Amino acid sequence: MSKPSPDVYEQGKGMDAHNQAMREIRSRKDETYDPREPTRVWLDEDNTPDGVYDSLTIILNTGGCRWARAGGCTMCGYVAESVEGGSVSHEDLMAQIDVCLDHEAENADEPAGLIKIYTSGSFLDEREVPAETRRAIAETFGDRDRIVVESLPDFVSEAKIEDFTEQGLNTDVAVGLETATDRVRRDCVNKYFDFAEFERAAADARDAGAGIKAYLLMKPPFLSEAEALEDMKRSVRKCAAVDGCHTVSMNPCNVQRHTMVEDLFHGDGYRPPWLWSVASVLEDTADEDIIVVSDPVGHGSDRGAHNCGECDERVQRAIKDFDLRQDPSVFEQVSCECERTHELVLERERSYSMPLAR
C-alpha cells in the first residue's frame, strides 16, 4: 500500500485524531502483494434465507478500502494486504477470479450455490472494482443461486445491484454497519456514516430486488465487556426492524496487524471479547425475526475471542452449530468454571484500558 492519505472524498469524515494515528500505524506496513492473486479464497457452508448453502468465499486483492487509506477503522488491518499503488486493473482482477475458480474445481465436488465476494473494502466502490469488472463477475457467476457482495452504504445503488439481480441471482449486499449506535460507530470504530444511511442503502437494495446482510462488530475498543454485550444485543434487534435486512453476521473483534486495536492490545488496553459474550448475544436474540450468525476469527487465541483456553473449542463448536441450526439450546450443552470469571468481568469491569481478565 502506498503512503496512507485521505482523498478529497474522505476529507472531513471521521475523527481527525483517529485518522492521523491510524495513518501513522498503517505506514509501518512494508509487505507487497501480487495483483493477480486473491487475498484469500475458501470453501465453507452458510445459512441464508433460502437454507444452508455450500459457499465459495473470495477476497479480491484491490487497491484497498479508500476509507482505510484515509486512516479508517480502529480495528481493521485488511488494507495492509492491499496492492501497492491504490488500484488494480480489470484484467488482474479477473485473473484473481480465475484462481478462485481453479481452487473450487480442485477442492469441491460441484460448484457452490453461494458466492461471497469481498475486497477488504467496498466491492461497489468503482475505484476498487471498476464497473466493467463488476459486470463481468456478475456474468461469470450468473449460473449460481446466490451472491453476496460487500460495500459501505455510500456506494450502494439500485443500478449497481441490478447487474447481479438481472442475471437471475438472489443478491445480498453485506454492509459493515458494526453497530446500530451512532456514537459507538463514530467514537470507537471511527466510521463516518449514521444508521440512517444504512437504512437508505437497505431501501435501495430492496428496490433492486436484493437483501441486506449487516456486519456487526462485537467489542470495538473503548468499551467494557458489559457495554459491548449490551450494544450487540440492541444492535441485532435494531437491524431486525429494518425492512430488507434478513441476516446479521456478528464479528467478534480480533487484534489485526497495523491497527489502533493492536497498539492498545500491546499496551494492555484491550482484550478481545469472551466467547461467552458471543454465545450470550446469539442466545438472547435467537427469537428475533432475523438470521444471526457469528464466525469468531482467531477464536481461542489471545488475539481473538477467547475464554480460559480449556473450553474455547467446545464453545466455538456450539457457535458454529448455532449458525447452521439457529437453535439456542446448543449453548446449554457447554459449560466451564470460567463462566464465573466472565460473570465477574461483566459485573465489575468499568474501564476499557484495564481489562479485568486477559
For the biggest sheet, the summary is: 8 strands, mixed
Spans where pLDDT lies below 50 across 5 or more residues: none
Number of strands: 8
Structural class: alpha/beta
The radius of gyration is 20 Å
Q: What is the distance, rounded to the nearest whole angstrom, between the alpha carbons of the first and last residues? A: 33 Å
How is the quaternary structure best described? single chain
What count of helical segments does DSSP give? 12
* Helix percent band: 25-40%
Shape: globular
Please state the average pLDDT score.
92
The proportion of strand residues reads 15-25%
Structure description:
- This protein starts with 15 loop residues before the first helix and ends in a 10-residue tail after the last helix.
- It has helices at 16-26, 66-69, 90-107, 131-140, 158-165, 182-189, 195-207, 225-240, 260-266, 275-284, 312-325, 338-348; strands spanning 40-48, 51-59, 114-118, 146-150, 170-178, 211-218, 245-252, 291-294.
- Strands 1-2-3-4-5-6-7-8 form an eight-stranded mixed β-sheet.
- 48% of the residues are buried.
- The radius of gyration is 20 Å and the shape is globular.
- By secondary structure, the chain is of the alpha/beta class.
- Helix 3 (90-107) packs parallel to helix 4 (131-140), helix 8 (225-240) packs parallel to helix 10 and helix 10 (275-284) packs parallel to helix 11 (312-325).
- The chain contains twelve helices and eight strands.
What is this structure's SSE topology?
Layout: H1 16-26, E1 40-48, E2 51-59, H2 66-69, H3 90-107, E3 114-118, H4 131-140, E4 146-150, H5 158-165, E5 170-178, H6 182-189, H7 195-207, E6 211-218, H8 225-240, E7 245-252, H9 260-266, H10 275-284, E8 291-294, H11 312-325, H12 338-348
Parallel strand pairs: 2-3, 3-4, 4-5, 5-6, 6-7, 7-8
Antiparallel strand pairs: 1-2
Helix pairs in contact: 3-4, 8-10, 10-11
